[in-house]
């Protein structure tokens, strides 16, 4: 059975938007006629490089959960729609890491691999992010590394992946890429493509003894880019981190590295009762260490206060451009000190128009 043809309404809406927001010499009717002909004869249609680049940028602009949208126009779009093999996808993902890292001055980049078409299914990347750390479950139930990835670690180990001789809490997992023709294949990331930051504290020397580090560049690789009815399931994109993602969530969540009690003890805080606010004091120091370390290492990072102000600037710019800006308050408000940021104290529009990025849990694919 043929895959459902492209949603013509979504395709037309996108092409009209592209023509409206960009200086395009050809009349939109011609472009629409060509698209309809392609959909009728092949069940899909191909975006021009300019349409693809614009679609990826607008999908970012439409991402209601993203606080970092002020720079949506600066996204660097890599058109990799002619890369169909697992080794080609893997090699370009490594190149993506190098381009995005840029010696620490991180550049927002997206790599767009082939879309789903009736003729050929798209390549798929099974990692949630290009760089994630292994989680090794010990017999006593304790975990070395990131507890979020114990199942992924067991799966790739079953596939033949071998951890480093000396396992650590920060061993980068292999990339898993699948195509219909070749099946799923694993690729180790070259260590020099994984830029890492050692975590130290601006005033507390003992912090370094915790032996913490984190990778510089976050690259989301499990979200589907949808543009004008076309679905690109492999389109890894990166920005830079907001410190709270590492300091409050990756290091702070009890089902992740769970470091708040450790830091509280080393700070000598009274952890015997909740109302000493030991958790709040420890998570602040954890976040100060993250921001300090990235600044020391010359790796781009932003704090949740600065990023909140930037986001409200973006919101004002969108409103003066006559566009609605979709915002999911529960994601935009940072996971610590919420009411200390200006994004907390207001309401927003919620509905998100296309193009957009979709997670697997999102209803519409
Ligand atoms: C340039 C710096 C950027 C910063 C500081 C930033 C910041 C963030 C943060 C803090 C989140 C919430 C993540 C979480 O709570 O787990 C987020 C979500 C998101 N960002 Fe951005 N972002 C940036 C660039 C980008 C780019 C380049 C794209 C895509 C082209 C993007 C697309 C998204 C999407 C789709 C989400 C929601 C993810 C989901 O629903 O799971 N962001 N961003
Ligand atoms: N700073 C970032 N943070 C994230 C952006 C989107 C998603 C995520 C991770 O989301 C996971 C699923 C829900 N929380 C963790 C993190 C960026 C990654 C890629 C571009 S910017």
Characterise this structure.
This protein is 34% helix and 14% strand. The chain is of the alpha+beta class and 365 residues long. Strands 1-2-13-10 form a 4-stranded mixed β-sheet, sandwiched between helices. β11 (224-227) and β12 form a beta hairpin. α1 (8-21) runs antiparallel to α2, α6 (243-250) packs across α8 (278-297) and α7 crosses α8. The site of ligand UGT has 9 residues, from β13 and β14.
Oligomer: single chain
Unreliable stretches: none
Mean pLDDT across residues? 96
Helical percent range? 25-40%
Report the span from N to C terminus. 19 Å
**Spatial strand order of the main sheet:** 1-2-13-10
Category by helix and strand content: alpha+beta
Strand proportion: 5-15%
Report the order of strands and helices.
HHHEHEEEEHEEEEEEEEEHHHEHHE
- Label the overall shape: globular
The biggest beta sheet, please?
4 strands, mixed
Radius of gyration in whole Å, from Cα? 22 Å
Q: Helix count, per DSSP?
A: 10
Small-molecule binders here are: protoporphyrin IX containing FE, the ligand N/C(=N/c1cccc(CO[C@@H]2CCNC2)c1)c1cccs1
Beta-strand segment tally: 16
């Amino acid at each position: 059975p043929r895959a459902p043809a492209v949603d013509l309404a979504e395709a037309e809406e996108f092409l009209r938007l592209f023509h409206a927001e960009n200086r395009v010499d050809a009349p939109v009717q011609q472009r629409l006629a060509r698209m309809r002909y392609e959909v009728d004869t092949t069940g899909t249609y191909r975006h021009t490089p300019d349409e693809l680049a614009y679609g990826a940028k607008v999908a970012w602009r439409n991402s209601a959960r993203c606080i970092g949208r002020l720079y949506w126009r600066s996204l660097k779009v890599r058109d990799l729609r002619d890369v169909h093999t697992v080794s080609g996808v893997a090699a370009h993902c490594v190149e993506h890491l190098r381009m995005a890292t840029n010696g620490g001055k991180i550049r927002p980049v997206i790599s767009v691999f082939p879309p789903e078409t009736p003729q050929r299914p798209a390549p798929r990347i099974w990692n949630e992010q290009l760089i994630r750390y292994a989680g090794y479950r010990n017999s006593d139930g304790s975990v070395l590394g990131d507890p979020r990835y114990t199942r992924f670690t067991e799966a790739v180990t079953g596939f033949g992946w071998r951890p480093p001789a000396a396992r650590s809490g920060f061993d980068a997992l292999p990339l898993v890429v699948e195509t219909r023709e070749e099946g799923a294949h694993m690729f180790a990331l070259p260590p020099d493509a994984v830029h890492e930051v050692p975590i130290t504290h601006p005033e507390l020397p003992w912090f370094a003894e915790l032996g913490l580090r984190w990778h510089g560049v976050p690259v989301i690789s499990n979200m589907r880019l949808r543009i004008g009815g076309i679905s690109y399931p492999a389109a890894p994109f990166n920005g830079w981190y907001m410190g709270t993602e590492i300091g409050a969530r990756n290091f702070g969540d009890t089902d992740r590295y769970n470091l708040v009690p450790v830091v509280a003890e080393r700070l000598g805080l009274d952890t015997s009762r909740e109302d000493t606010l030991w958790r709040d004091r420890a998570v602040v120091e954890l976040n100060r260490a993250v921001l300090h370390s990235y600044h020391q290492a010359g790796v781009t990072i932003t704090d949740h206060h600065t990023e909140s102000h930037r986001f409200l600037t973006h919101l004002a710019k969108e409103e003066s451009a006559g566009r609605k800006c979709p915002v999911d308050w529960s994601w935009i408000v940072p996971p610590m000190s919420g009411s200390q940021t200006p994004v907390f104290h207001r309401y927003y529009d919620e509905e998100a128009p296309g193009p957009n990025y979709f997670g697997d849990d999102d209803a519409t694919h």
